[in-house]
Design brief:
The chain is of the alpha/beta class and about 375 residues long. It contains 16 helices and five strands. The protein is about 55% helix and about 5% strand. Strands 3-2-1-4-5 form a five-stranded parallel beta sheet, sandwiched between helices. Helix 4 links the parallel strand 2 and strand 3. It is globular and about 55 Å long. The protein starts with about 30 loop residues before the first helix and ends with a helix.
């Protein structure tokens, strides 16, 4: 194993990603993937977006809602909400409260639905169940401690889509800020087999109401039987996060919360502190690299931002105390969790091989259709 440190000469990804590779001039595999896979698929064509929005409106005629949008109060989903209004869509807005909302996120959500005139459904996840699941993930030693939140978000959202017979799912996912994300830094949050396996080993309470999505539903039922279409409007425009924040601040009274996905107090602490200190990687590096590849940030600017602390030390202390109190554990128990052996998703049962087979089948189908 090569332990020599290396950083990309184009973006700022480095060997904190154990699977990264470099070419002869020091450009990394993430940049190569961006050039060969992501960039060709990134249309940035507002006219195509107009046509797509028009089709959503047409297909939704006679229905209460023509689309559905999961709203976290963060930048990306909030801006998608504003775009939906501009194009005359009538989305059902769903917010999933997993118990970690920041006050800023809650205010943002309230302002958005009020000023845009959208209906809001809030799904509150049973706290005792998600708390037990969250502690199970701490004990498991895997890196993606956000799975209990993320899985519930999408499971509840898709449940509302089925209930209201909605075909179009509006997503804030985008290439501009998310084109780089090492697979070695986490594992698919939608793998319910792994979620249940980890909880079975480490959990104490039954997950009676916690929403989950099976492999069949995720990869067969939703896309092929119910024909869900995941729409990512931000990939059709020149999406600049800073400009989006300024526009939403002026028009919606929107407030920034300090970092990507920091609208959740758990995710703020998890990404800002736990990942770098316990697992040895910083998602900020991937986010900044995405902006460099999108042409929104220079490599030098990204390097300078990496030198800035993710969280002030006083906020780390505050969040640590909040997390322990929220999870009903002592500081000593928390320290014990952080000293347990590190694991990967391969150490627990999962649908990984099944997913890989599914991807191969899809690829063959696409080639056959072409």
């Amino acid at each position: 194993m090569n332990n020599t440190y290396q950083i990309c000469t184009r973006c700022i990804m480095d060997t904190s990603d154990p699977e990264i590779t470099f070419d002869d001039v020091g450009v990394c595999s993430h940049c190569s993937t961006f050039d060969t896979v992501i960039k060709p698929a990134w249309s940035k064509d507002p006219e195509k977006l107009s046509q797509l929005m028009a089709k959503i409106k047409l297909d939704g005629e006679g229905k209460t809602y023509d689309s559905i949008l999961g709203l976290s109060g963060g930048v990306d989903s909030s801006y998608v909400a504003m775009l939906a209004k501009q194009y005359g869509l009538r989305p059902l807005v769903v917010h999933v409260d997993a118990g970690w909302n920041s006050e800023v996120a809650v205010r943002n959500i309230e302002n958005i639905v009020k000023k845009l005139g959208f209906d809001l459904f809030t799904e509150v996840i049973n706290w005792e169940e998600i708390k037990d699941l969250q502690l199970s993930y701490f004990k498991s030693g895997v890196a993606n401690l956000d799975v209990p939140q993320d899985h519930a978000f999408f499971a509840a959202l898709y449940g509302y889509a089925i209930k209201h017979n909605i075909q179009y799912v509006l997503s804030g996912s985008n290439f501009a800020t998310e084109s780089v994300l090492p697979t070695a830094w986490g594992y698919d949050a939608m793998d319910s087999k792994q979620l249940k396996a980890i909880h079975k080993i480490f959990g104490k309470k039954k997950l009676s109401t916690y929403p989950t999505i099976s492999f069949f539903k995720m990869y067969v039922y939703f896309p092929y039987i119910k024909r869900f279409k995941i729409i990512k409007p931000l990939n059709f425009i020149e999406y600049d996060k800073n400009k989006a924040i300024q526009e939403m601040t002026e028009k919606l009274g929107w407030q920034y919360y300090g970092g990507k996905h920091y609208e959740s107090r758990f995710t703020r602490f998890f990404q800002g502190y736990l990942l770098p200190t316990r697992f040895g990687f910083d998602k900020k590096r991937a986010h900044l690299s995405s902006l460099v590849l999108a042409g929104q940030l220079s490599r030098q600017e990204a390097l300078e931002k990496m030198n800035e602390p993710n969280l002030p030390i006083e906020l780390v202390t505050e969040d640590t105390e909040f997390l322990c109190k929220k999870l009903s554990i002592s500081p000593e128990e928390f320290k014990q969790y952080l000293s347990m052996p590190l694991k990967t998703f391969r150490d627990y049962p999962s649908n990984y091989q099944l997913r890989q087979t599914m991807y191969k089948v899809r690829s063959l189908i696409r080639k056959f259709i072409k």
